[in-house]
User: Fold this.
Amino acid sequence: MNKFFLILSGLILLSLNLFAQQFSDLSRPIPFDPEIRSGVLPNGLTYYIKHNEVPEKRASFYIYQNVGAILETDEQDGLAHFLEHMAFNGTETFPAKTMLDMLERNGVKFGKDINAYTTTDETVYNISKVPTAVDGLVDSCLIILRDWCDGLALTEEELDAERGVITEEWRTRRNSGFRVNAQLAPTVYNGSRYAERDVIGELDVIKNFDPKEIRSFYHDWYRTDLQAIAIVGDIDVDAIEKQVIELFSPIAAIENPVSRNSADTIPDNDEAMYAVATDRDVKNVTVSLNVRHKYQTDGTMAQLRETYILSIFNSLMRQRFSELTQSADAPFLGAKVQVASLLRDYKIFKVSATARVGEEATAFEEVYSVFQQVLNDGFTESELERTKLNLIAGAENNYNKRDQVSSDGYGKALKNVYLKGSSLPESSFNYQFVKEVVPGITLEEVSAVASKYLGDKNRYYTVVGPSNAEVDFITQEEIEEIISTVESSDLAAYNDHTPVNAELLPVKPQPGKIVNEKELKEFDAVEWTLSNGAKVIYRFADFQKNSVRLTAQSYGGTSIYEVEDLPSAVAVNSFVKTFGIGELDPISYKKVMAGKTASSSFKVGPYIDVVAGSSTPADLETMLQLVYMRFEEPRFDEEKFDNQMARNYKTLENKVKSVGEIVKDTLNSILVNGNPRALDFNKYYLDQMSFERMEQIYRERFSNASDFYFFIVGDIDAETLKPLVEEYIGSISSTGEKEKWVDHGHYFPKGNNTYRIGIPTHNKSSVYMKMNAKAKYSRENVIYHSILKSVLDLRFMENIREKEGGTYGVGVKSSASTIPQSRLGMEIRFDCDPTKAEYLRSLVLAELDEVQKNVRQSDLDKVVLNMKKNAEHQNEKNSYWLNVLQTYYDTGENMLDPEYYDAILDRVTTKDIEKAARSFLKSADIVDIIFEPQRFQDQM
Assistant:
């Protein structure tokens, strides 16, 4: 035997033996990644530092505060969140908004790269994707972290200015979900302080608190023993650690600190509790049995194993309900049995059913019966083994992509290390743990989760439904009677019916041939023409290791069909994907695909038909089989079609419309402006849907490989790919015909159209402007339009959010299209106080007028730098190269040419953007709407 082989075999056996020993005692802690430098300063502050080059020449900075709304007094209700805002409004080193200005001048954008959040238990800040090559910028970010620790200015001027912004955030958050949660909170949290703290706080406190209260909160809780920082990126770890020690050590520890653990406990309840929450925007009824469990992370391998057990349990329950919805007209609209997180130190076990009003009892009984089957008989070995295969395949895929974890990915994971006590091991540990430990998880352990987490102690029932329902909702007594009845019933055992030997593609196709090969030197790609006329454009790309992506596209879409066919054409996307594929129904398909990473999808769009796929190299053949089957072996199931149609008709019976749906429907009605192809979803629409016509349209769209371009990019070599392409793409049927999309005209309302529309809401107006203009296509026009959008972002942030405190944020979206016409679009929307809507709208119009005459050089510099920074690493993604190749074949434009993007950014001037703004805004048709409370409108 070869000596080298003996040595290699010995090393492999030694490695396996070491891992086996590592997992022999699961009571030991999970090992921490040795490449992460960590420490605790004498003042109690914790730090984490890691070198990471994804992306290169970038670094991310985090500060984790073990502080949240739960620590507030009644006089401070909402001030933990308010304080988070103030971290961006002035520190000892960076007065007022100078911090944000400095960062944005270096390409670090507020809201995208600079952000923060507050919950009941924690507050986290981040500055992400900071260019490390800019002199002094890393040093400045470290100083910002230090100031966030101990140097917020909290001036009365900035505090007063921010009151308006947070008032508008308070207004924006008052949606249906918020209102429902507020009604349930006293029961969910059993009267604890968690029931009283919703993070955003009380409006009276926000508007009127004494500045000493927020300063007191800052002093008491923003302290080094409750803080950690993390710096991850393309940095010198030794140098950064030295700076951290020098900068943060002088911060004094707080003497006699207030105890952090005094408020975060929920009292037990021995008797079951019950709560009903109603809201006008809720359409259906959800009934839930909930059991609250205290749970604290201990960082051991035993607990990690338990996490996988719970994950398997949740997955198996989802599969059971998924099968039920596939096999029959289930009595529920939604079903859930799972163990989930409630708070940092609490888990929740939930059994819930969502149904139409008046049908919730039947739905809950069905859901509880499925759960009771598990209590009685457990799961099956075949179910468990398939789920294990999926876990192992996922772990292997993650391991193969271990070099692609971003710095922000590490930053978010380290948050859990500090705040939750979890560990962050190196990637090889996770992979080996799953390979070695997960296979040993037994059926009995997974099945036992049901009884382990179902208990009488800390149980509560919740019912959520529409406030205008004309029937009484299910009571606690009725819920408990259903549970008792189901528990005493003789339920049939679950049958895992999939044939053991089922295959994805039992009969392989007759391969075609590559008949022509053309090198695309400028893209380092190749075009293969197949004997059936299909063209495959392939590029090797291995930055995203172990990943292959495919997109096939053809022109046509729904545009080639008459109006009467549109319901059936649109049904292709929503129905066919639920039927399965080939000989496999959806249930069998999931089981056959266990342990595989391959997937595929399709879409019939307005103008383009698409088939897509993705996989690891190991499952490449499976992915190409799926792509082949989308064309040659689609599956159609009339029974499933009829079941879904019955559900659709029944949905129309529910006349309840949320405010959001009213706004959406009203807006849509205005924008389509009589377009005969924009059909309402009503009984007439459903009556036009035909199973036979839907199937016919699908086969028409995906029956001609010669009309498709297949783009393949990823970590696979050409010689491996070629024979598979010949077999599975070269064998797809072709007619040789070429189709093109059809232009049915443009229906956007002409001119300036102003509306004031009353809606059933209480405390906010929504301002909406949409503009659309025909424009000659050029790369400059498209890029200038994008720059204009970003300049407006800055102007609205400064003058409407910050200066006026008028809204939580103005959303601006820009668009550019070439099919079916070359057009530019822009959308502006925000929520605000109804009494200020007209005034704030006038400010928006003033900014739109100003940007046509005066674009500030400083704004343009910030926007261009951020655009360049965002584009710098895009060529490291398969999606980028797919876009490059598709763009070239669609338009003939080369995205790699500097004139496509970079050169335009290098020479753009403020005059260019002013001219672009005038050209667009003076020619644009406009829809200008304010949605306002009906009662407010009645007073006008």
